[in-house]
Amino acid sequence: EMVLTQSPATLSLSPGERATLSCRSSQSVTGNYLSWYQQKPGQAPRVLIYGASTRATGIPARFSGSGSGTDFTLTISSLQPEDFAVYYCQQYYNLPLTFGGGTKVEIK
Amino acid sequence: QVQLQQSGPGLVKPSQTLSLTCAISGDSVSSDRGGWNWIRQSPSRGLEWLGRTYFRSRWHTDYAVSVESRITINPDTSKNQFSLQLNSVTPEDTAVYYCTRGSSMDVWGQGTTVTVSS
Predict the structure, then answer these.
(1) Are B111 and A101 an interchain contact pair (Cβ–Cβ within 8 Å)?
(2) How many angstroms separate the first and last alpha carbons of chain B?
(3) What digits encode the pLDDT tens for the residues B23-32?
């Protein structure tokens, strides 16, 4: 099973600041089959990024994904009030599909 | 716009069967967009993939090892939906259950909170 480790667990930032979230895989995610999701309290996750770097439909340009192999990054260039949430990475290179433990982005 | 609408009971007794349905609108359960999944989320396990069904010339299913002896995911082409059955549930199966589309999960159901308790 491919284990995804996200860091940090919590990120305390102010609106307007840049957020950098990390996702590290226990094995290489060949083909960059990795997605990022945002989840707000009481809601289902929603996809932000797939294929490691492609923004999903309707996702603002301040969200960007990068990385390859075992190390991936989600960057939010300038935090907006609605961006404070929990973020998860997920690999779909092999079964079982697996998720990271999440990074909570909270208001400082 | 593709939507997934979940239905099923929120309370199940220990040792009984958890049954949920996910109705699809705006797409077909037989489409080739990567399949239809069941996911669950709990504080102890986080987000956990349970299994999927998909059609590629014939129907296929894949299950997580942790539940493969207890789980069945079935497509229903007549109603354009798919279902989850999880047998012999215990309190550890208490979670929010989601249905999703595709391996990169671009569409999610609204979630069903299932509590296993007598």
Answers:
(1) no
(2) 39
(3) 999 999 999 7
